[in-house]
Amino acid sequence: MSSYPDDRFYSKSHEWVRVEGDIATIGITDHAQKELGDVVFVELPDAGEIFDEGQEFGTIESVKAVSELFLPVAGEIVESNKGLADEPGAVNEDPHGDGWLVKVKVTSDGAADGLMNAAAYEAFVEEEAKA
Amino acid sequence: MRYIPNSPAEQAALLREVGVAAVDDLFATVPREVFRKDPPPLAPPMSEIELRRALGAMAVKNAAATCFASFLGAGLYGHHSPAFVSQLLLRGEFLTSYTPYQPEVSQGTLTAIWEFQSHIALLTGLDVANASMYEGATAFVEAVLMAERLTKKRTKVVVSRTIHPEYLATLKTYLAYLGLEVAEVAAGADGVTSAAALAAAVDETTFAVAVQSPNVFGLVEDWTVASEAAHAHGALAIGVVNEAFSLALLTPPGAAGIDIACGEAASFGVPASFGGPLIGFLSCRDAFKRQIPGRLAGRLETPDGPVFALTLSTREQHIRREKATSNICSNQGLIALMATMTLTALGKHGLRETALQCLSKSEYLKTGVKALDNGKFAVAFPGATFNEFALRCGPPVAEVLAALEKAQILGGVPFARLAPGAGEHEDLLLVATTERVRREDLDRYLDVLKGF
């Protein structure tokens, strides 16, 4: 069984996107959180900020490293996960659920183009591990 | 520093390589008029014995500041430095060329830094202080840049012109090429920032509003003038402090809505020397700690008890150069230690007692000036002061200072010296008192003024 939910798409920079209507919810994958280790801080944009596809929208800091977060779809931020300010560990505990990062109002039609489904992402992660 | 000699042949090879004919050509961009016309008045080579005699003869011409009653201030105040401070500071563990930060070998240093931060946080009434900055002016700039990062996409900082002119000049130098605007708000006739003028200068493009207290005239400012003007437009309020002893008596900036406090902490036992080294400080609310510049020591819990280590280091350039909050990558370790030792020795009551002495002596002098009946001198502004006030002089300030000097008194800092060429307040002399001046010094000062 895949460890990645089938209701969403995945990027090569290890973010996931779940689209409902014109709103996309974005987080980092279970694989990404394992690689990062314990997350201690997440810096997220304010509602109203607009980003291009692939643009950096925040940073995530773990006990091991700091990584930039890249938006897999272009759009305007409508909400960021305020709960992470006090409990950044939610990214580790429930990366595909409570550990979501931002909700975006998608501006392009082909929002999920170029992203992978769960099976393809799992294969991508395995390939990366071998490389 | 090692002296690396080179021969005339090597010099010629170096000059050929860089493509100039003579060493002097390397200074071609320096304006000719700043060069000496005559060779420096140096004697021919001397033996060691001759040299010592010659330098000794020069040295006795010096007048040590300690032989005078000093009323110098204007940003740098001659407070007492307890003897044990300089003694302990010379210990090899502390007196190193670089501040060691590795927790496994530097628990003493890191503990001292953490204590410095704790002192500053308590005194400024804010949650977090960093491990120190180089000095007050650049601490002020760092506070402004920090506010810009925190507010995002805003371009204007509103500053009161009652902030120390050298601090403002440093700020303008930093911001000149960053596309950020410095809007200056003139002081009212009473020498204090006008709340209305400050508020009027703030708009939606403003990321920070800064005032200083006590201000450059020594006057106590109301921090809420800045914090209310800033917060009305979503900007941050910055409080600047030159004379850190004032924090022992006056409302701490953090208690009056100031978001970032910064300034100079040399008053805590760091001798004025020739103007340095100094010790800047910066503190802020907890919510802003990820944008603090520079080093930050933290207290960690381990199974063996508390330990100290640098923390939140991802702000710093050795981790993420392009995202670093500042290019300051050290702290003023040894000087922070001096301040920490002084504060620890004074304690809460000693600090307050010292500050009260500074205030009382200044008030004594102000009262004396007001009682002079020769009509030549006045206290320039009516507002409350801490340990420094502006003396308005009828006679030229230089003549007043010369007369005081004859009575073994360093009478103060002419305001005009702080902002050369500005042509402002040329009749003002800034007069500061610390716990080191005595009643007889104050009386002697007043006697000299009476003689005009």
- In terms of DSSP E residues, the strand content of chain B is 5-15%
Chain pair sharing the greatest interface? A-B, 6 and 6 residues
Let me know the CATH homologous superfamily of chain A.
RNA polymerase II/Efflux pump adaptor protein, barrel-sandwich hybrid domain
Order of helices and strands of chain B: HHEHHEHEHEHEHEEEEEHEEHEEHEH
**How many angstroms separate the termini of chain A?**
23 Å
Shape of chain B: globular
Which fold name corresponds to the CATH topology of chain A? OB fold (Dihydrolipoamide Acetyltransferase, E2P)
Radius of gyration of chain A: 14 Å
Our count of helices of chain B gives: 12
Mean pLDDT level of chain B? 92
- CATH top level of chain A? Mainly Beta
Helical run tally of chain A: 4
Whole-angstrom Rg of chain B: 24 Å
Sheet with most strands: strand arrangement of chain A: 1-2-3-9-8-5
Structural features, described:
The complex is a heterodimer of chains A (131) and B (452). Chain A is an alpha+beta fold and 131 residues long. Chain A has 4 helices and 9 strands, in the order E-E-E-H-E-E-E-E-E-H-H-E-H. In chain A, the strands form 2 sheets. In chain A, strands 1-2-3-9-8-5 form a 6-stranded antiparallel sheet. In chain A, a hairpin with a 3-residue loop joins strand 6 and strand 7. By secondary structure, chain B is an alpha/beta fold. Chain B folds into 2 domains: 117 residues, Alpha-Beta Complex (Aspartate Aminotransferase, domain 1); 260 residues, Type I PLP-dependent aspartate aminotransferase-like (Major domain) (Aspartate Aminotransferase, domain 2, 3-Layer(aba) Sandwich). Helix content of chain B is 35%, strand content 15%. In chain B, strand 9 and strand 10 form a beta hairpin. In chain B, helix 4 runs parallel beside helix 9 and helix 5 crosses helix 6. In chain B, 42% of the residues are buried. The chains are: A alpha+beta (131), B alpha/beta (452).
